[in-house]
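Late entry, adenosine-5'-diphosphate complex.
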Amino acid sequence: MTEAGPTEASRPKRFLSGVQPSGKLHLGNYFGAIKQHVELQNEGEAYYFIANYHALTTIHDAEQLRQNTRDVAATYLALGLDPKKAVFFRQSDIPEVTELTWLLGTVTGMGLLERAVSYKDKVARGLQASVGLFTYPVLMAADILAYGSDIVPVGQDQVQHVEMTQDMAEYFNNTYGCQVFRRPEYRLTKTAKVPGTDGQKMSKSYGNTIGIFSTGSELKKAVMGVVTDSTPLEEPKDPSKCTVFTLYGLFATPQEHEEMAAKYRKGGYGYGSAKKELLAKVDAFFAPYRERRNQLLAHPSEIDDVLVEGARRARAVARETLDAARSACGV
Ligand code: ADP
Ligand code: TRP
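Prediction complete; structure with ligand written out below:
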C-alpha cells in the first residue's frame, strides 16, 4: 500500500474549491459560493484556487484572462479571504496537477466523461467541443485529489464532477492496489439559488446578473431592471412571487424582510419603492468591501505576492500526492 502524506487520518478537515475567472462575479456567486468559502477558512484547512486552466476552455483572449484572474483574486481578498488562513493560489502555478491529470486520464473510461451533463450543456449552448472541454472533469479531479481534499463546497452544477472524481480516485486506487487518493465529498451551500433580474437563476451566461462590485448608474440600472409583474401600485401583492423581495431578503434582517412583506400585502406600495430599498441595501452592504478591493487593485503586486505564496504551499502538498501516484503506477 502506498500512502500519500495528505491522506493521513489525523489532520483537520481539508476544504477545497476552485472558481473560474470567466467574468465579473455576481450576487449568486457571493451568496452561493464566496460567502461560504470565507466562513470555512475558520473550520479547517481551506484551499481555494483560481481555475484559469479551466477558463481556457472558454476564453481565448490573454489580456482578458489576466484581468479576470486579478479581478477574482481581489474580489476574494476584499470579501474576507485571509491568505494566512486559507491557501489561495492560481491553478496554473501547480504543474503537478496537470501531470496528475494525465495519470488519472489513463484509468478513466470514455463512458464516464461522455455522461458529463455539463459538457453536453456547454456544447448544446454553442461552445466549441474541444478535447480540453471534454476532459475538463479529469483536470477537476486532479485539482481535488492533489490536495487530499475531504470536502468540496460547490454549487449543484458541479456535483456530478465531484462524483466523477470519486470514481476516478477509486479506479486509480483499485488499478494499482493502493490508497493514494482520498475520497472527496461535495457540500452544497445552504443558500438556494439566487434569482437573477429576470427571475431565472442568476448566471453570467444568462446576462441577468447584479455585480457584487457594481456601483452608481450600473448598479441602479440592474436593480431597477428586475422584472416584476404588472399588479398596479395600489393593489396588494404577493411577496413570495417577487424577485425584488427575494433579493432583499439576502441583505435585510428578518424583521426588515417581514416589514417589506407587510407593505406588499397591504397594497399602496409599488415595486419601484421596493427596488429602491433593495438598491440601498446592496450598495451599503458591499461599500466597505468595495473600498478594500480598490486598494488591492491599486497594488496588483500585493495580489500577486499572495498568490505566489499560496502556490508555494499548495505545491508542496500536490508534490507529495503526485510522487505517490507516480510510484504506484511505475513511472
Ligand atoms: P455562472 O452561473 O455565473 O457561470 P459559476 O458557474 O461560475 O457562475 O458559479 C461559481 C459558483 O457560484 C458556483 O459554486 C455556483 O454554484 C455559484 N453560483 C452561481 N450562480 C449562482 C446562483 N444564482 N445562486 C447560487 N449560487 C450560484
Ligand atoms: N469547475 C468549477 C466551476 O466551474 C471550477 C473548478 C475547477 C472546481 N476545479 C475545481 C471547483 C475543483 C471545485 C473543485 O465552478
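Residues 16-18, 20, 51, 54, 140, 143-144, 152, 154, 158 surround tryptophan (ligand 2) (CB under 6 Å). Will revisit in the morning.
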